[in-house]
Amino acid sequence: MAAIVGLGGVCLDRLAILPRMPGWDEVEHISSSATQLGGMVATAMVAAARLGESAEMIGGVGNDDAGRYALETLKREGVITQNMQVIDDEATAFSFVLVHQETGQRTILHQRGVQAGEELPPATFDLAGVRFLHLDGYWFRSALRAAQQAKAHGVTVTLDPSTRLLHADAEELFYCVDYFMPGIAFVEQFMAEREPFRAAKTLLKYGGKAVILTNGAEGVYVCAPDDEFHIPAFRVPVVDTTGAGDVFHGAFVAGLQKGYALRQAVTFASAVAALKCTKLGGQAGIPTFQETLEFLERQGFAVRHFQSA
């Protein structure tokens, strides 16, 4: 298996840029459109692979054109797919993504399809040689089982919690996580606290190494048992924010695999996510490692600190 394994969501994204969001019974002309691979963990694994790390995707797709497209795209990006499941009589998950032309903000209409299930075969996972397991909460029972095995084998577990984890049983998974990485939207639905640092501190109760809270244009708020800091978002010409958080998470895990310390990995991931936002779709704008280094250098960072750790 790869050094980085992701278990979770994969879907087909159909994206459209609109000058404004139409109301019911109105028509609005699309400025541009695209079809791309999406999914929280799938996008994270593509990001890790594009940044030069070995990555594997575990998930499920339907036996349909969208599923075949997803598998072909993952393979083309260098993501291992040998444990992907093709499930008959179910549709591959897909999303309609409507992007505001001026701000890059988006609205997502999602069809779960095959990912409505809780269990994904096989019942056990071979984690030999794996260093990081990245999850989003899709295939919850399988994710929990994999996380428990990971903890037993000393594998670092990272979690980008989807709204599928807004239920009481999810806390069993949270206690297995080393790096808890929620977006602000999840936090606002999961708990009463809205202030990022206080929310992140509260989530440390699950015993992880750090809570990394992403908050869009406001940047990233990080709390560890002995440290807390804020990394502002890099300013770039934004075309589309779709998948920015997913890309951040994949880049963060790639940074840890490269040997980066916590602050260094967050800064690196923030740069990768910013560059992603300069193109339409969750994956088209993901930069290579070299492109990220060049961007960081233009931002005034000493690139030698990111070339080796």
Salient structural properties:
alpha/beta, 10 helices, 309 residues, 8-stranded mixed β-sheet, UDP-N-acetylmuramoyl-L-alanine:D-glutamate ligase
Question: Which helices and strands appear, and what pairs or packs with what?
Answer:
Layout (H helix, E strand, L loop, with lengths): L3 E4 L3 E8 L13 E7 L1 H11 L4 E4 L1 E3 L2 H12 L8 E3 L6 E7 L5 E6 L20 E4 L4 H13 L3 E4 L10 H5 L4 E2 L3 H7 L5 H8 L6 E5 L5 E5 L2 E5 L12 H14 L4 H15 L12 H10 L5 H4 L2
Parallel strand pairs: 1-4, 1-9, 2-7, 5-6, 9-10, 10-11, 11-12
Antiparallel strand pairs: 2-3, 7-8, 12-13, 13-14
Helix pairs in contact: 1-7, 7-8
Description of the structure:
Helix 1 (40-50) crosses helix 7 and helix 7 packs antiparallel against helix 8 (262-276). This protein has helices spanning 40-50, 65-76, 140-152, 170-174, 184-190, 196-203, 244-257, 262-276, 289-298, 304-307, and strands at 4-7, 11-18, 32-38, 55-58, 60-62, 85-87, 94-100, 106-111, 132-135, 156-159, 179-180, 210-214, 220-224, 227-231. A hairpin with a 2-residue loop joins strand 13 (220-224) and strand 14. It has ten helices and 14 strands. It is globular and about 55 Å long. The two termini are 24 Å apart. The strands form three sheets. The chain has an eight-stranded mixed beta sheet with strand order 4-1-9-10-11-12-13-14, sandwiched between helices. A four-stranded mixed beta sheet has the order 3-2-7-8. It has 309 residues and is α/β, with parallel strands linked by helices. Keywords: Kinase, Transferase. This is PfkB domain protein. Pfam families: PfkB. Residues 26-288 form the Carbohydrate kinase PfkB domain.
